[in-house]
Write a structure and sequence with these properties.
- Helix content is 38%, strand content 19%.
- 41% of the residues are buried.
- Helix 1 crosses helix 3 and helix 5 packs parallel to helix 7.
- The chain is of the alpha/beta class and 234 residues long.
- The chain is globular.
- It has one domain: Acetylglutamate kinase-like (Carbamate kinase, 3-Layer(aba) Sandwich), CATH 3.40.1160.10.
- A 9-stranded mixed β-sheet has the order 4-3-5-2-1-6-10-11-9, sandwiched between helices. Strands 7-8 form a two-stranded antiparallel sheet.
Length: 234
């Protein structure tokens, strides 16, 4: 495993740490430290982060709100997280750029693929905010799409769980972990790795996905150093 350019997908919920809502500054700082460790070793890093710690489009629909309206609110939530992560990275001396799929000139560059690639080539971390800019698409789909567009070598999906299991390990103590699994096996077994749109995009473009526990300090660096961390889907 020799990855030169990666796309790191983080969930908004993971930023909550031990809180019930919002952003845990300790967790944010831990993530920034892990990202700095790998950029210092010369790996090009792009990031997509969700917004579920602040707002989810699905929750708006449950409350009777129009789904499209709710999804746009969710995109704004991802921008709050993206700005927080950018600030945490820059406080550690990591040069970064925030690009938004929805134009917000005062706080972010508009998403331009060529510009994003140029930033990466110059060693800057690029954070992609506001999902794909379209309702009905998750941030998983945004991660898959952006990873393909920038020719990333892999998507690293940072979660609370250390890989893909035969069942939900938080509910089923007999669940066992896969070290590696194929796209077709994931389909056949009905495993929940990413939403189907995002997952199919990766399969059709032969883009591997590694699911790992981002909350364990040092895991990101260990994974990229070739240690057996998480589960690879290819």
């Amino acid at each position: 495993m020799n990855y030169k350019r990666i796309l790191l997908k983080l969930s908004g919920e993971s930023l909550m740490g031990d809180k019930n809502f919002g952003i845990d500054n300790t967790r944010l700082s831990d993530y920034a430290t892990q990202i700095k460790e790998i950029t210092d070793s010369g790996i090009e890093v792009a990031i997509v982060i969700g917004g579920g710690n602040i707002f989810r489009g699905v929750q708006a629909e449950e409350g009777g709100m129009d789904r499209t309206h709710g999804d746009y609110m969710g995109m704004l939530a991802t921008m709050i997280n993206a700005m927080a992560l950018q600030a945490a990275l820059e406080s550690k001396g990591v040069d970064s750029r925030l690009q938004s799929a929805i134009e917000m000139r005062e706080i972010a560059e508009p998403y331009v693929r060529r510009k994003a690639v140029r930033h990466l080539e110059k060693g800057r971390v690029v954070i992609f905010g506001a999902g794909t800019g379209n309702p009905f698409f998750t941030t998983d789909s945004a991660a898959s799409l952006r990873a393909i567009e920038i020719n990333a070598d892999v998507i690293l999906k940072g979660t609370r769980v250390d890989g893909i299991y035969t069942a939900d390990p938080e509910k089923d103590p007999t669940a066992t972990k896969y070290k590696a699994i194929s796209f077709d096996e994931v389909y056949a077994k009905g495993l929940n790795v990413m939403d189907m749109t995002a997952f199919t995009l990766c399969k059709e473009n032969s883009l591997p996905i590694i699911v790992f526990n981002m909350d364990e300090k040092g895991n990101l660096k260990r994974l990229l150093n070739g240690e057996e961390v998480g589960t690879i889907v290819s």
